[in-house]
Amino acid sequence: MANPYQRxxxxxxxxxxxxxxxxxxxRMERIKNEHIKEIMRLKAKPDIIDITEKKRLQWYGHxxxxxxxxxxxxxx
Length: 76
Hints:
By secondary structure, the chain is mostly helical. It is built from four helices and no strands.
């Protein structure tokens, strides 16, 4: 299994590939990632890793407040 750093890079590269395809730009055009994000109007928005980490923390807080006998709490 890949380590967390490799997994994070794979997710980010897959996300950029999806953005590139949505912008109809090829890697052969050698356009920088920042420019692709500007084209897609995502320059100031958080990337997929930030969103995932935020959602994980929200879920953790949700499970932490659950009663002890609930299945998600028992699993965690």
